[in-house]
Amino acid sequence: MGFDYALVHLKYTIPPAVLLTWLYRPFYTKLDAYKVVFLVLVAILSTIPWDSYLIRTGIWSYPGHVIVGPKLYDIPLEEVFFFFIQTYNTSLLYLLLTRPTFQPVYLRIESGPSRNSWRATKLAGQVFLLGLIAWGWRRVQEGGEGTYTGLILIWACPFLLLLWSLAYQFIVMLPLTNTALPILLPTLYLWIVDTLALRRGTWVISVGTKYAVHVWDGLEIEEALFFFVTNTLIVFGQLAFDNALAVLYTFPGLFADPSLLPSPAVLMRALLTPSSKYDAARLQGLDEAVLRLKRKSRSFYLASATFPGPLRADLLLLYSFCRVADDLVDNASDADEAKAWIAKLRKFLSNVYSDKVAPSTMHAQVCEDFPLGTQSALLQLPAAKLSPQPLEELLQGFEMDLAFDQGPLIKTTEDLRLYSERVAGTVAQMCIELIFCWYPSTMSAEEQRSIVAAGNNMGVALQYVNIARDIGVDAKIGRVYLPLKWLSDAGLRYDDVLQRPSQAKLESLRKQLLHDAFSLYETTKDAIERLPAEARGPIRVAVESYMEIGRVLRQDKFKIKAGRATVPKLRRIMVAWTTLNLPDNYTDETTFLDHLQRNPRLQPYEFWSLMADATVIVQHLASVIIFCCCFIAIIHGRVSPVAVVGWASLCTVLAWFLWDHWMGQEFKAVASVPLTPAPEPETGEAVPRASQSLSPRAKQRLATAKSAVLIYAALLGLSPILKSLTRSTTSDSIWALSTWLLMMNVAFFDYTAGTDAHL
């Protein structure tokens, strides 16, 4: 028996697991847990027979002095744990590296000229893996130095062949950070760990079954191959899982209303779906949406990576529509063209929400009225999950922008608020609608409406930050969103801002606008905690990433890029990670007292009533402590059991007399209150009266005495029996049993019943 192998885990495998868990914890979802658990089970179940065979045939072995002892089919438990920890670590690294990637855009339709190319790619991989299986089988049949290598190949390559055949598109198309990096990093690390373990003799490979070739001093080529192959299996398994999820959530025409935790059978159906059935228009819409988001909003692109897959797709499509609509209006050559675009957009939305317009007619209208590069954004709008009202208000916001051609539009704070509600509050409202669509809640319709209203206010706050950031950029296109009243109070004119948007006087107005933004933010951010749990963290990231721009603007000197204040990428990442780590219902320290004062469930307590409520708890805990002291004293022979029982009985009797006297005083007080006699029955018959031989007080005393005598006699009668039964029981068992019984007594005692409390 030894701990060398266990120490390998303590030193080299468990610390990375803890680190990766800590890093990925903010992003962890039920679906991620499902994927990891599924792959861990597959890894353990598929590796145990193979590993057991290698040990029984002497391919490798574990000296008895390096393992704790317990085995499963001749496999040390430390080795079984290795199957788990390697799969867990590599899976978490894969999840961490692939989180920013929106994987559905890497799906491809095999049609036309690309069909033959994809078939050739698939076939080449299959032939290569089949060749490895055949070569490995030959090495095993021949025996000798190639046995271990052959066993690795004939065990791993069939799984790789299956995974390649199902997910070769993903494996080829995804960036190397999603495929090669999560394989190579853990492989290199485990090569180092294996080198140290082989040098210490933690596990030993039989000399006649290996090639005696080393990658470096101490690392056998077979061990290097083993860790590379196993990590490839884990990553390919994750890729196949994600490929299935991408198909499942991207094409509602193929899989209507998919589960957020799909069964393995559904996942296999998705993987086996021919790519020719994929919706090319939807793939194009998603691809263009991702590109637009990368170009136009780095903050929201970063935040989008934190949203669960299906919700993320709909949010991207919603953003793409809003961005395209805004660009059509802003990039118009004149006001008439802009109004024409708004009219076409309004017509499009009318067709979308009309039961009388066929999809083909709507598609034809989009193709006729809109440029080719914008059509997918309109056609892929998830309108079925959105109400028409916020989309109409968004168009009204665009119309307000057009009014700038006729002169200043924002005259008062109310005008600024109305504009912000239409162009930003509506977008926030639609995001919340999508959240409730994907993650239905049990809350009432009224509460959902209050959350949507709070989302609208948060959108206004974010728009205020946007306006504060873009004062200079907006001035170049002839727009000033600062209210005229603010300008007048600061001694400025509208034209002054257009001509000199960087003048010092505007900084005070920028600060005022940011103050209003953060005031709205503080009053509405609590609504985030009432959203479904799956969306709370991502929404926090989306909000905080944008509000961080406001915090940068509050600084005296901020970095300008393309006329706008920017937040460094590392700072945005840290904000996102920190925000996701916040617990649910988080309240920051600066507003804690305000939230406490607004707590509707807060009730004041009087000191003596609180003391009375706590008496039963203190009394019971004191009784337990006294019992423990007596028990320990008896065990160590410092106190006689007879003395303990005698004094306890005497104190109990005295306490009962005091309690009886106290209760007697209360009975007298109650008896002194006159009672209204009950009316006699009209029949005139005599009503039998209860026997007056014993008063209620006497009956209570008699019942108490009977109970006390019964319990006392039972304990005295059972004590010799219990003593003889426990004579052969070891002291540690008695201590353990006593501890558990006391813990159960303390935990399950009825503390809520006051003087009537009982176990």
Notes on the structure:
The protein has 759 residues and is mainly alpha-helical. The chain folds into 2 domains: 3-277, no CATH class; 281-593, Farnesyl Diphosphate Synthase. The chain is 69% helix and 2% strand. The chain has 28 helices and 8 strands. The chain has a two-stranded antiparallel sheet. The chain has a two-stranded antiparallel sheet with strand order 2-3. It has a two-stranded antiparallel ribbon with strand order 5-6. It is flat and about 105 Å long. The protein starts with a helix and ends in an 11-residue tail after the last helix.
Instruction: Describe the oligomeric state of these chains in a short phrase.
Output: single chain
Task: Return the CATH class of the largest domain.
Answer: Mainly Alpha
Uncertain regions spanning at least 5 consecutive residues = 683-691, 754-759
Number of strands: 8
Structural class: mainly alpha
Distance between the termini: 47 Å
What's the CATH topology name of the largest domain? Farnesyl Diphosphate Synthase
Q: List the total number of helices.
A: 28
If strands are numbered along the chain, what order do they take across the biggest sheet?
1-4
Mean pLDDT: 83
List the domain count as a whole number: 2
SSE blueprint and pairings:
Blueprint (H helix, E strand, L loop, with lengths): L3 H21 L5 H27 L3 E2 L9 E2 L2 E2 H22 L14 H30 L4 H27 L7 H20 L3 E2 L8 E3 L2 E2 H30 L13 H9 L7 H17 L1 H7 L4 H22 L4 H18 L6 H11 L2 H8 L8 H15 L10 H26 L6 H25 L1 H6 L7 H6 L4 H6 L5 H20 L8 H22 L5 E2 L2 E2 L3 H12 L11 H6 L9 H29 L5 H31 L24 H30 L5 H18 L11
Antiparallel strand pairs: 1-4, 2-3, 5-6, 7-8
Helix pairs in contact: 1-3, 2-3, 2-7, 3-6, 3-7, 4-5, 5-7, 6-7, 7-8, 9-11, 9-14, 10-22, 11-12, 11-16, 12-13, 12-15, 15-16, 16-17, 17-21, 17-22, 21-22, 22-23
